[in-house]
Amino acid sequence: MMPLVSIIALCHNHAPYLREALDSILAQDYPHLEVWLVDAASTDGSPAILREYARANPGWHLRLLPENTGNCRAFNQAFFQSQGEFVVDFATDDVLLPTRLSQQVALFQRLPPDYGAVYSNCEHITAAGQPLGLHHRPDARGRLHPRPASGWVFEDVISRYFISSPTVLMRRATLLALGGYDEALSYEDFDFWVRASRDWRFQYQDVVTTRKRKHPRSMSARLTRQHDPYLDSTLAVCRKALALCRTPAEARALARRLRHELAHALRRRQWAAARQASRLLVDVVGRVVGLRGQA
Q: Measured between alpha carbons, how far is 57 from 47 in angstroms, rounded to an integer?
């Protein structure tokens, strides 16, 4: 029997893109799906569209939240009620390509059970849907940039950004082992990658499965603003990563990440975050020394 896949579709003011996103769920060639529509107090007409699709698809679950308490809490409310062996965290300004889930489930079924996530390439698009290029871009020699990593990827995850979040399919057992998303954080993906990759392997699939939309309200756009609301969460995850480092190489990888985050904070004159990153960097350097002594 084919495993059940839970799609948790998170919406907050995605009305211009919502129908395309929901139609892309309906277009999946993988039939064994469970769909949860979760709206975080949208004010742009999104709830009416979600009600329309829920009525037309009686098996779909609809949750209209009274306030926007963040992606992590909204996701968890549906995740802990869902039943799928595999789970998609789907932002409803993105688009799933029709063979996305059939390809990823087939890959998961070929992998050992200690693989907690598979991810793939994606195409970036404008708000109007025009192509902007691939996330993993081949160079003249066919090498992909950023370079994907598979297997035990903890060191890669803490040092650099290479996974396209909308392409990830997660094993339910992995999310359950982590207790779901950390609701104290402003965003979820980095924390999931760090905590999951410590004890679970990841696998890259070299196919384009998703279209990721770039627009002024998207997460990726907000991350580049001068007043970055997500830097505190990033540093909190780095603090978790420090406790998980087991080798000098992993601690050095975390130091590289922190130097990047420190520079990010200084460029935007976020002095409190810069001080926090500096203190954490000192702790990481101490961890490197301590781990060397244990070797």
A: 15
Residue 50 exposure: Cα atoms within 13 Å on the Cβ side: 28
pLDDT digits (tens, 9 = 90+) for 203-259: 999 999 999 999 776 554 444 445 567 899 999 999 999 999 999 999 999 999 999
State the pairing for strand pair 33-40/61-65. Answer: parallel
CB 45 within 8 Å of CB 11: no
Place of tokens 């709206």: 39
Query: Using CA atoms, how far apart are residues 250 and 7, in angstroms rounded to an integer?
Result: 33
Structure confidence at residue 290 (pLDDT): 87
Alpha-carbon distances of 200 from 41, 56, 229, rounded to whole Å: 34, 38, 29
Residue 83: HSE in the Cβ half-sphere, 13 Å Cα cutoff = 7
Instruction: Read off the pLDDT of each residue in 166-194 and give the average, rounded to a whole number.
Output: 97
Domains of the chain (ranges, CATH numbers): 5-222 (3.90.550.10), 231-294 (no CATH)
Token representation of residue 84: 């799928």
* CA–CA dist 245, 159 (Å, integer): 12
Arithmetic mean of pLDDT, 149-173: 97
For residue 4, give the nearest of 88, 90, 114 by alpha carbon: 88
Q: Cα–Cα distances in Å, from 135 out to 28, 56, 93, 119, 289?
A: 22, 34, 17, 12, 36
Q: Which residues contact 130 (CB under 8 A, 6 or more apart)?
A: none
